C-alpha cells in the first residue's frame, strides 16, 4: 500500500515510521525542509535509505501533492498543524484524486464532528483529551461527588 502523509511533525512522522516499518511504501510532504529530521530521529539509517520518500512543498499546491505521489496513493493522512489546511487537502485527496482511505486530523471538536458527518474520516485529539481527562476526574470522585 502507498501512503502519503502531509505534515512531518510529531504525529505525521510517527505515523510515517510506523507505516514504513509495517512494509508500506510511504511518502511524506512538508513545507519545511528541516522536518525530515523527525523522520531520521532514532533511526540507524536515514529516512530515505530506509525506503521512505520526503518532498518539500506546500500541501495546498496540487503540484506538490503530485510530486509527493497523491495520484497513486492508497491512503492519505492530513496531519499538519492547521485544521483548515488539513480539511482542504483531505477533500482534495478524497474528491479529486479519489484516494480510498483519507484520514484527517482536526483539532476543533465541533468541526471534526461536522466533517465526519460529511464523510471524512476525522481524528480529533482535542476531543480524545477531553474524554480522557473527564474520565480520569470522574474515576477519582467518590459517590458523594468528592475527590477521594
Q: If you had to describe this structure to a student in words, what would you say it looks like?
A:
The protein has 148 residues and is of the alpha/beta class. The protein has one domain: NAD(P)-binding Rossmann-like Domain (Rossmann fold). The longest helix has 15 residues. The radius of gyration is 18 Å and the shape is globular. The chain starts with a strand and ends in a 9-residue tail after the last helix. It has a six-stranded parallel sheet with strand order 3-2-1-4-5-6, sandwiched between helices. The relative contact order is 0.14. α2 links the parallel β2 and β3.
Quick take:
The protein is built from 6 helices and 6 strands, in the order E-H-E-H-E-H-E-H-E-H-E-H. With 148 residues, the chain is of the alpha/beta class. It has a single domain, classed as NAD(P)-binding Rossmann-like Domain (Rossmann fold).
Tags for this model:
Rossmann fold, alpha/beta, 148 residues, 6 helices
Strand content: 15-25%
Q: What is the distance, rounded to the nearest whole angstrom, between the alpha carbons of the first and last residues?
A: 50 Å
Q: How many DSSP E strands?
A: 6
Q: Stretches where pLDDT falls below 50 for ≥5 residues?
A: none
CATH class category: Alpha Beta
The rounded Rg comes to 18 Å
In total, the number of domains comes to: 1
Structural class: alpha/beta
Remind me, CATH topology? Rossmann fold
Share in helix: 40-55%
Number of helices: 6
* Overall mean confidence score, pLDDT: 93
CATH superfamily: NAD(P)-binding Rossmann-like Domain
CATH architecture: 3-Layer(aba) Sandwich
